[in-house]
């Protein structure tokens, strides 16, 4: 054997031996794979059925895609639709227009490849059925994905998005589009004070609202609980509705691609910005939002101004906002502050003896400001000093636009913020008689006479950001006017102290 191996390596064997050896090797190579030296019983593993398998296999049946966030006069909706149809031909796609689309989209829904694309116009038609004007009636899937204009789908990101949504079905799930930077915001809606406040969330993942170009997915059942999830401006109005219901939005990593840029000209940008502002004003008017505090601390006012009427109707007994469970609108309170500061400055410059009266004094003691529900400010004045103030004698609009006028019934005065905006400050003259200050020929429910000693000397108190003259014993003065323990009762029952 040793000799044969040596000859094999040296190549000195005959041709027949070489043929035999090669045939033997080929035969072994065929037989050995079929022979089981150690037979093992096969193990059958049942395929795991989890949410990931369900998501990837039935994604088109789970989700309806909705386009709501775009400008009808200039958009990239056609190409965005084509991107999703190309990736998911069976996915339901809904395009919601505020009015009949013009110019029309560059595609036809009669095309067989676009058989699942539906265009719905939400403008009112007299022959429309109720369901035609309800976008949710066109949605039959378990989830709704809102996608902004100029978006291109990425399969992996969409699967990741839906997987996150199925893992947290009571929340919304957002993902960025293109190079946009998403800002996570917390929203506080103060119904009583007519104020909406935004603040940045340092965690950046669980939010009340999301700012920046993004897509967001919700379970359809959540949208059915909202008053109007498709209201403009979108998605701002959607997040206001979910925030009130404590429905959070989680932001996941990853991004959809962006499509072609739109609104490239200054004219189109201005038009889009103007429309957004119009939608926002209409929304805030509908909700009764008068002030919005942005996450950078800026305050945007949507209530009354000097050139507009005040935010509540003429008062007959109890103000309308109190009956609605609210305080006076913050814009009106701000305008009353301005008027009160102007009046106090004018009276003091004229040398008149004046002081904060009942409700304004109460607000100064409790809050250092007007009471949150006060419909006006009250300032008392010594009747002997009325001739000193020229505007009380002649009346009319002064150089700053404030309107001075005498009441038609009763010997008292009021100063309005402007001729149009009639929030005002009352100036109430008191006449001394035998050491007592008496109302000078006028009657108000919570006003009554008081001892002259409360004005000798006058004190100073913080009021609406400045020092104002006040009676020297504010608590005793208020208890005399409003009854015992007026401060405690005010903090406990609020406006019922004045409007029982």
TrEMBL record:
The family database entries (InterPro entries) matched by this protein are listed as: FKRP_N, LicD_transferase
Membrane-crossing residue ranges in chain numbering: 12-32
Asked if RNA-binding is a keyword of the record, the answer is no
Q: Which GO terms describe its biological process?
A: protein O-linked glycosylation via mannose
Per UniProt, the keywords (alphabetical) are: Membrane, Transmembrane, Transmembrane helix
Source organism's superkingdom?
A: Eukaryota
**GO CC aspect terms:** Golgi apparatus
Q: Does the keyword Repeat apply?
A: no
Q: Which Pfam families does the record associate with it?
A: FKRP_N
Q: What residue stretches are annotated with the FKRP stem domain?
A: 52-294
Q: What is this protein called?
A: FKRP stem domain-containing protein
Organism equals: Pieris macdunnoughi
């Amino acid at each position: 054997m040793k000799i044969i191996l040596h000859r094999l390596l040296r190549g000195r064997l005959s041709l027949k031996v070489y043929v035999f050896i090669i045939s033997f090797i080929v035969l072994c190579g065929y037989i050995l794979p079929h022979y089981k030296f150690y037979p093992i019983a096969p193990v059958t593993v049942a395929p795991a059925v989890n949410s990931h398998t369900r998501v990837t296999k039935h994604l088109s049946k789970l989700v309806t895609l909705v386009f709501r966030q775009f400008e009808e006069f200039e958009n990239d909706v056609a190409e965005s639709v084509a991107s999703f149809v190309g990736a998911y031909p069976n996915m339901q796609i809904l395009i919601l227009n505020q009015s009949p689309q013009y110019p029309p989209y560059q595609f036809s829904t009669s095309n067989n490849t676009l058989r699942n694309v539906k265009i719905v116009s939400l403008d009112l038609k007299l022959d429309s059925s109720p369901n035609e004007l309800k976008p949710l009636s066109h949605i039959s899937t378990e989830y709704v994905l809102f996608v902004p204009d100029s978006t291109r789908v990425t399969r992996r990101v969409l699967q990741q998005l839906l997987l996150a949504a199925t893992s947290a079905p009571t929340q919304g799930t957002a993902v960025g589009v293109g190079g946009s930077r998403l800002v996570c915001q917390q929203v506080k809606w103060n119904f009583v004070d007519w104020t909406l406040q935004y603040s940045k969330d340092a965690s950046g993942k669980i939010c009340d609202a999301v700012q920046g170009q993004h897509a967001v997915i919700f379970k359809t059942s959540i949208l059915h609980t909202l008053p109007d999830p498709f209201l403009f401006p979108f998605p701002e109005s959607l997040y206001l509705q979910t925030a009130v219901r404590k429905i959070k939005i989680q932001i996941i990593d990853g991004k959809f691609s962006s499509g072609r840029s739109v609104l490239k000209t200054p004219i189109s940008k201005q038009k889009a910005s103007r429309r957004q502002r119009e939608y926002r004003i209409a929304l805030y008017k509908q909700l009764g939002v008068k002030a919005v505090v942005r996450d950078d601390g800026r305050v945007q006012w949507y209530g009354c101004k000097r050139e507009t009427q005040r935010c509540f109707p003429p008062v007959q007994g109890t103000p309308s906002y109190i009956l609605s469970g609210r305080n006076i609108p913050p814009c009106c309170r701000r305008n009353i502050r301005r008027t009160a500061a102007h009046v106090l400055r004018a009276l003091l410059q004229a040398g008149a003896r004046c002081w904060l009266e009942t409700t304004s004094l109460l607000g100064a003691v409790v809050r250092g400001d007007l009471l949150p529900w006060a419909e006006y400010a009250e300032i008392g004045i010594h009747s002997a000093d009325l001739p000193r103030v020229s505007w009380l004698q002649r009346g009319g609009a002064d150089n700053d636009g404030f309107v001075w006028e005498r009441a038609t019934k009763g010997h008292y005065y009021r100063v309005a913020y402007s001729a149009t905006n009639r929030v005002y400050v009352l100036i109430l003259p008191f006449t001394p008689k035998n050491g007592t200050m008496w109302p000078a020929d006028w009657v108000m429910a919570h006003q009554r006479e008081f001892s002259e000693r409360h004005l000798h000397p006058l004190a100073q108190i913080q009021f609406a950001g400045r020092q104002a003259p006040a009676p020297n014993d504010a608590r005793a003065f208020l208890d005399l006017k409003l009854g015992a323990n007026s401060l405690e009762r005010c903090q406990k029952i609020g406006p019922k102290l004045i409007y029982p």
